[in-house]
Each structure stands twice: as C-alpha cells, then as structure tokens.
Design a protein that fits this description.
alpha/beta, 6-stranded parallel sheet, 12 strands, single chain, elongated
C-alpha cells in the first residue's frame, strides 16, 4: 500500500504555495499517494476576511508593525489558538480523516498548527514536517515546536538559531528551500527574446508600488548597464515607467509588465533589485545572484533583509539616492559582487526538493521499522 503524504500550505504566502508545488512534483507518484491541500479554502469567512485585509498593500505598514510587536512566545501561542479556531472546520477535518496521511508536510505555520492539533485530538496520527520558508525564525513558526517532528530550514545559520530557541538539533535539517529550475531558459535565448546584447551588466528591477521614485532616480543616471523593469500586474506603474523612459530619451531601460519567465530573467541578470520577500530572495540565492534589497513592506521582510545584509550576501538601499549609489559602487568595484556570489555558495543547498523527499521517505521507513 502506498504511503500517504499530505502537503499543506496557504495561499496567503506566495512562498508557501510555490514550495508546496515544487515538493509535490518531486515525489514519485508510483510509490507515494501525494495530496496538495490549501487550507485557506476551508477556513471560516471571518478568518478569510482578516487575512485578506492584512495582506493588502495599503496595510503593509500596519502588518509590519504588528508582526514586529508579536514576535514573542506568548503572542505566538495566541496566534496558534486564533489559527486553529479560524481554520478548524468540519470540512477540513473530513479531508484529514478521509486521506489519513502518514506524513503532513507544512509550508506555512498555519498549516503546521492544524496538523499538530489534529494529531493532538486523534483525528490523525501523522508525522509533521514544517518547512520554514522565511529567512527568520519568527516566533509564529515555533508556537507548536514540541509537536513538530522535523523542521526543514535554509541553512545551518538558521538551524543554529532554532537550536538556541529550544528546538532539538536532531529535529532540524538544513536542506535549503526548493526552486523550480525547469522554468529557466538558456541565457542566449532570453537575451535574443528581449533584444539584449549581453555586453553590459544587466540589472533586473522587480518593482513594487512604492519603488517608482527609486526607478526614476536610477534611470536618470544612465549608467553603462541595461535595466529590466518588471512591473508585474500593475498596469498603471508600467504606463508611468514607459512614459518616463520616453520623455527622458532613456535607451538602456526595458519596461515589462507581468513576466511569465521571471526565473529566466533572474538567470541572465548580474544584479537583482527587489524588496526582500522570501520567495525572490530564495530564487536569487539559488542562482548565485547578488541583490540590492529595497525597503521592506512588512516585518518578515525586514527580518529577511537584516539576515541578508548581516551575512554580507546582499546590499540594501532604502532611498532612491542610496540605490543609485549602490549601483555605482557595484560598477566601480567589481570585487564586491564577486565576493557576494562566493558567499552565496555557502547559503544554498542544491537539489533541495529531492533532499526533502528523501527525508520524508526515511521518516516513513523508520516509523515502519
């Protein structure tokens, strides 16, 4: 009989869903029954409303302030109770009961809370694996650490932080966080598709709503670089950037909207300018790309940026002027970017998805023995 693996995530976090999808694809379905589960589809209406409000960009500051204030043991226990009350519905219980997983692999702390809670009230008797997708051990990840069988983290630095907070070292595996390399197109093809020569350094600017001034300041400098400005689904920002480039006769900027081949654009870039979100940082680390990190929009991003700069694997630029100065610094002193790339090799584990799958397989074998 196939062993059952439930991979539980939430769509409140882009990294949670992305990592869950990649891990799911890595399991051999001939030998394992794997089910992906977005627990947000089963949460109570009031919980959906509360989380959607705090996800909105208009409340980024409030969201960041809140996460900073409640980064402690007592607040995390309160958050666990809130999550269980909000997500524990009859329909979700039925999913867990009917599938009856041997292992629940969680890529968000909410899904981890639910998995350990259902074990506690005997709905399931599963092993719980929690994959920490952030670059910070916020207390939310640790509220139920005594009920989590195994933690998976980016690297040994984060593992050691968990140990200092009371988690057994034997329960933590520094396996890295998965990235989908299958989406990366060859550099030659990407350069051709976007009519880029590849003779100048390429700076990929992943724009946020608050970074238009940063873009204008950098573009005016007309450094000997190519800038790819990705505006995502923000059509208004795209129009503003295109108009600015046209009015100022700027020749070294390519403005894009939503880019389906974002992985490939990261692949051809020398520097990535972005806000410090967990997903994009992980992708840059996995591809040995130096980053210039803009102002964080919430507390988790603040911790991510602090982690990256503290370990000298990224630069930061909070103001438009600071961004231009950091770009000039990288152009003037090439050893800075080279040093960052050399350090990045120590911060990423290749083949992370397969390593996580192997870890789960070993857990299943040991439980059977």
């Amino acid at each position: 009989m196939k062993k059952k693996i439930l991979i539980s995530y939430t769509t409140y976090s882009n990294s949670s869903k992305s990592v869950a999808d990649i891990i799911s694809e890595s399991f051999d379905k001939r030998f394992y029954d794997v089910k992906l589960l977005d627990i947000t589809n089963y949460s109570k209406k009031i919980t959906k409303l509360a989380n959607s409000l705090f996800k909105g960009s208009s409340l980024d500051f409030l969201n960041g302030l809140l996460f900073g204030l409640i980064n402690n043991k007592y607040a995390s226990l309160g958050n666990e109770k809130y999550a269980i009350k909000g997500f524990d519905t009859e329909s979700l219980r039925n999913i867990f009961k009917s599938f009856n997983p041997d292992v629940v692999l969680c890529t968000h702390f909410y899904s981890s809370y639910i998995a350990s809670y259902y074990n506690k009230i005997n709905i399931t008797g599963s092993k719980v694996v929690t994959v920490i997708t952030d670059f910070t051990n916020h207390s939310f990840w640790l509220a139920n650490y005594k009920e989590v069988d195994t933690y998976v983290v980016h690297n040994d630095i984060i593992k050691n932080e968990l140990v200092r907070k009371g988690v057994k070292a034997s329960n933590i595996y520094a396996l890295g966080i998965p990235v989908n390399y299958e989406k990366v197109t060859s550099k030659e093809t990407v350069l051709k598709n976007y009519s880029l020569s590849g003779k100048k350094p390429i700076y990929l600017f992943l724009a946020g709503d608050n970074n238009y001034e940063h873009f204008k300041h950098l573009a005016r400098k007309k450094y000997n670089i190519d800038i790819i400005m990705v505006c995502g689904k923000n059509s208004k920002l795209k129009d503003e950037c295109e108009e600015f480039v046209y009015r100022n006769n700027i020749k070294n900027v390519l403005v894009l909207g939503y880019a389906k081949d974002l992985y490939s654009l990261i692949g051809i870039s020398d520097i990535v300018i972005t806000k410090p979100g967990s997903t994009i940082i992980n992708e840059c680390i996995s591809m040995d790309k130096a980053c210039i990190l803009l102002s964080p929009q919430n507390s988790l991003e603040k911790f991510n940026r602090r982690y990256m700069t503290k370990n000298h694997i990224a630069l930061k630029a909070s103001t438009p002027g600071s961004l231009s100065r950091k770009v000039k610094l990288c152009l003037s002193y090439g050893f800075i970017v080279k040093a960052i790339r050399n350090r990045l090799n120590k911060f990423y584990n290749n083949d992370s998805a397969n390593k996580i799958c192997s870890l789960v397989k070993d857990m299943l074998k040991s439980s059977r023995d």
